[in-house]
Amino acid sequence: MINVIIDGIKVSAPDNASILQAAELAGVKVPTLCYHPDQAIKANCRVCVCEVEGLPLLQAACSTPIRDGMVIRTNTPAVIEARRTILQLILAHHPQDCLNCIRNKNCELQALAEQYAIRENPFELMVRGLPRDTSTPSIVRDPDKCILCRRCEYACSEFQSVNALGLENRGNHAMIVPSLGKDLLESPCVMCGQCIHACPVGAIHENEEIDEFLAAVADPDKIVVTQMAPAVRVAIGEEVGMATGDMDMNVLVTALRQIGFDYVLHTNFTADLTILEEGNELLKRVKEGGKLPMFTSCSPGWINFCETYYPDLLDNLSTCKSPQQMFGALVKTYWAEKMGVDPSKIYSVSIMPCTAKKFEAARPEMNSSGYRDVDLVLTTRELGRLFRMTGLDFSRIAPGKFDSWMGAYTGAAVIFGATGGVMEAALRTVYEVVTGNELKDVNFTFARGMEGIKEAEIDLNGLKVRVAIAHGLANARKVMDQVRAGESPYHFIEIMACPGGCIGGGGQPITKSNAKRAERIEGIYKEDEGLLLRKSHENPEVIQIYEEFLHEPLGHKSHELLHTHYHDKNKKFL
Amino acid sequence: MAEFKEIIMPFKNTPGGIIQAFHAVQKKINYLPENAIIDAAEVFGIPVKEAYGVATFYSYFSIKPRGKYIIRICESAPCHVAGAAEIIASLERELGIKIGETTGDGKFTMELTECVGQCQATPVITINGKPYAGVTPQQVAEILAEYE
Hints:
The complex is a heterodimer of chains A (574) and B (148).
Chain A: E1 2-6, E2 9-13, H1 19-25, E3 49-52, E4 59-60, E5 71-73, H2 77-91, H3 108-115, E6 139-141, H4 151-159, E7 165-168, E8 175-178, H5 194-198, E9 204-206, H6 210-218, E10 223-228, H7 230-236, H8 249-258, E11 263-264, H9 267-288, E12 294-295, H10 300-309, H11 323-339, E13 346-352, H12 356-361, E14 376-379, H13 380-389, H14 411-414, H15 421-435, E15 453-460, E16 463-471, H16 473-484, E17 492-496, H17 514-529, H18 540-550, H19 556-562
Helix pairs in contact in A: 7-17, 9-11, 9-15
Chain B: H1 2-8, H2 17-29, H3 34-44, H4 48-57, E1 69-74, H5 77-81, H6 84-95, E2 108-113, E3 125-127, E4 130-132, H7 140-145
Parallel strand pairs in B: 1-2
Antiparallel strand pairs in B: 1-3, 3-4
Helix pairs in contact in B: 2-3, 3-4
């Protein structure tokens, strides 16, 4: 441990600590912009500068290691003046557009400008006037707003190993651009949206589509139906001033009705259905010598990644559509039939923690109902905006119930929202299908938590199944390279594109650290534990849909509506 | 294109060899086409976005096609004070192009550069590396005539 004095406070910090870390231990708040708790130090914004006794120049707190006896001052007039100048210089290149910005009131630069009482700017405003990149249905780049902190690039390259974003030119001309200076769609971008969480400002964000939703609600001919992914509930509270995980599911149902949905159904229903289809697909592959290991296929960012970087392994992907798309295909067939409504009038909206889902819903092959299966995808953040816009007071909303036929779910579906959840849900069902015995303890705890790659061998009455779980695409890449080399020992691999799984998805409330992801995961397992039914095959509406409509897993109807195929994206530069 | 890989390959095991490889490509065709950047990324085992970052970071590399003769005008302080702007204006008049552009016949490209170390007589321009010191706007046409 090393002893330093920060603003007169004596503090002991670990040997390799930075001034920033030591200040945190001392309870002294130093402002940051390019710093990110889960990323390497970049030290390019300089806003964290402090005085160090004996050194002539101000030092960046994030990148300066402490030394024994160091005396640091973080809040002298000289430091404050320097920080204000730095902020003014950054702001001189930044559009003065806060009111119209998607990150208004949730922007680190705006917050610092407020904190440092920036009232005017002696530097001439020089905004570059670069065009926005709207090439993808998921993510919009607004390069004029970029402050070159490089956090997005780090998330894209290091967490995700996607390498879509990089630096172009240098100095005053430097910009963060998609690879080779192309647009995002042409780049290797998989649309996971982790760059959005990394961005301190509004330089990269979801393709916002709340106007499309409002137009559908206003149209009397449309039956507006929603499905909502399991990861949404544990995070949506953050958008409306509640603690993570605090939103009650039934209150949420009423709130969704109040913003205009005619019917509130649940993606959890098709998550349970996915387990029946995917579990049986796995068993079939094991029994009949099919392609192994089999990869899960729920995460569209992961599908994009596989189609981009591992097109030679597409046959290993489960042919199951994601729960969102299974739902889309069924709501305009099975559900329409059950309800006696004209499927052409159904406007199917999904609420997702995910930006890649917007791309997935727009895939040309996703029309097996005879219509576009999912008409609109809203992210959790967009839902938050709709809630704020409509002025809902959540403390006064009475709990409601999901509508029938595609609204019931089990705990197995709930845990789809976290890394390891699909694996655990599958094992709960596969165990009972294979052994014929009741699974007494449904908790496969090896599958839980933020460790990058998790693995286990499960004994199903003598049938040993080796499984692995990876989240974050850099982890997925490790597992995939093993498969490509023919050295993978696994039968079944769950992959989710985003760190932590869907709870950390690119459409979730802006997530500033992995610690927040871990908090949301807790909410997921708490919900699972509180449910009576925790195995997908016990979902009464799933049992019913097989009896009345699908007849059997992997059957003819399933094949038509619930399964898909994948394409080599043929990207030329990776 | 196999041609680029052949040029790039000899630098594969040199530390920082991508820079030499890019110089070697430019020696052949005066700029770095996309395929050369993609090939270099493959040879050096780095993502294309990184190879692209290198290609755009250094002012001596260009990702746009350039003319046979590259005119660089120093924009550092001594040349600036000595009237580099007038030299630029004169060159632009003579060639009918602006900084960063190439003449229609593919002969000349104009670029800015930092100090080239000839501050004893400013302003300075270089044409394909050959320095011209103490240039006046009147001399510009004469200098260009050397490259007719």
